[in-house]
Amino acid sequence: MNTQIIKVDPEHPDIEKIRIAAEILKKGGLVAFPTETVYGLGGDAEDAGASKAIYAAKGRPSDNPLIVHICDYSQLEKISKDLPPEAKKLSDAFWPGPMTLIVNKNGVIPHETTGGLDTVAVRFPSHPVANALIRESGCMIAAPSANTSGRPSPTKAEHVIHDLNGKIDAIIDGGPVQIGLESTIVDLTEEVPTILRPGYINKQMLEKVVGEVKVDPGILGTENVHVRPKAPGMRYKHYAPKGDLKIVSGDQDKVIAEINRLAEEGENSGKKVGIIATEETKDFYHIGKVISIGDRTDEYEIAHNLFDVLRKMDEYGAELIYSEEFSTPKIGNAIMNRLLKAAAHQVIEV
Q1: How far apart (Å, rounded) are the C-alpha atoms in residues 73 and 92?
Q2: CA–CA separation, 344 vs 338, rounded Å?
Q3: In this predicted model, what pLDDT tens digit does every residue of 16-27 receive, in sequence order?
Q4: Contacts of 46 by beta carbon, 8 Å cutoff, 6+ apart
Q5: Rounded to whole angstroms, how far apart are CA atoms 287 and 237?
Q6: What is the mean pLDDT of residues 177-183?
Q7: What single DSSP character describes residue 268?
Q8: From the CB of residue 106, how many other CB atoms can be counted at a distance below 10 Å?
Q9: Would 350 disulfide with which of 133, 157, 254, 304, CB 3.0-4.6 Å?
């Protein structure tokens, strides 16, 4: 398959170029496009065949639900049933933006899109390109991240091209995304709204709008392989680089010493070693490929750079990767959720 690359201005996309991609979606094809979080791989959410094609292109397990992207609240009402009052409150506060709501579905969205579940995950993105594509296509767009399943999520068109070129119809290149972590997922089918995936919109922000909010205990813990995932990525290993990633946790001086010891040990055994550090610590490491993820005081920079750093480790060919821990006040849970999944929960405490 010849994948068409459509380059657009991310803030003011040429509508004629957007219409080229929209026509592909109308015909059941697949288009990767930028959102404010990561790049998505889109197909018509009401087309069971398009959803099957998304799973095939990504190599994604078919019981891992897709998020339906909309451009108006009325579309949420169209595809849901028993919509709780919290849905309107949260959508008024955070849409368009990086929040996904899980609600009970009616028959409009097929089970092929929802991973066989009777619930549907829905998001109203704020990115001008995503919004224009949804409007021009006339489709609600089912879209997981536009990467090979299990790999680091794409934050640049180059990442999508690397993973999916020749497998999908088109890629809209809108430059780097703004946030770099996928949306916060909130389950509204429980008695108390429950965060199934942390993101830019944190628990405190949600509680200001709807009161009590729970956090699913599986977010930072190990996952039960016998539990069917209610949200994208709850069960499967995600975001992983090709090398063996381990997180080193503890006091900074001890973490630096342990990573240096492990790096030297790895290099002496003939392995290519990568180290994920910060601006404050990068000069303390002298072995292997050292990449700064950003300034430790700027958690949004760390979140934005995370997936790009993991892909740079692949470009280097790192076989062993050691990362510092990044527990930060606002979105630290979201950062560590992704990093723990990428490391298959391998943590060294020092």
Answers
A1: 9
A2: 10
A3: 999 999 999 999
A4: 108, 109, 110, 113, 139, 140
A5: 28
A6: 97
A7: H
A8: 14
A9: 254
